[in-house]
Amino acid sequence: MQYFPTTNAKPQLSLFEGLIAHGMPPFLAEPPPPQHERLSELSLSGNSEHCRLLLAPMLRELSDAPDSRWLTLVAPPAFLSSHWLRETGLNRERIILLQPRGIQGALELTCKALTSGCSHTVVSWFAHMDARTRSTLHSAASLGNAQSLNIRLGR
């Protein structure tokens, strides 16, 4: 069986002609920067030992980030003690631990840390975040050119 193209069909453009026809940039041009998401969430469940094993490499990577700003942990759970942070090889010279005091809540403290611009990443531990809280954290992170990471721990 032989195939004979019909003469009524539109001619097919080559790949490069198609790019040019649609005004697409050449392959070697810089791609447009991705939309930067400022708020991320991680949900962990199980016992605290398993959670620590999962968190250690992630926090170590963040503490060694090439950004010269701080990794800030706001109101971390008790099992993430200063001793544990040292034990797991985190760069303690690049980490700040903040605890809310008095009437200042964890959300307010997290927002202050994000907007200050002194931290590349601010880690919070909110069990539940509604749309308003998400929006507040996202805005604060944008103002401080930082990343907000919320870690939810389940039991």
From TrEMBL:
Keywords: Cell cycle, Cell division
InterPro entries xref list: Cell_div_suppressor_SulA, P-loop_NTPase
Annotated GO biological process: cell division; negative regulation of cell division; SOS response
UniProt cross-references to Pfam families, sorted A to Z: SulA
Top-level taxon of the source organism: Bacteria
NCBIfam families per UniProt: SOS_SulA_aeru (NF041583)
Protein's name in the database: Cell division protein
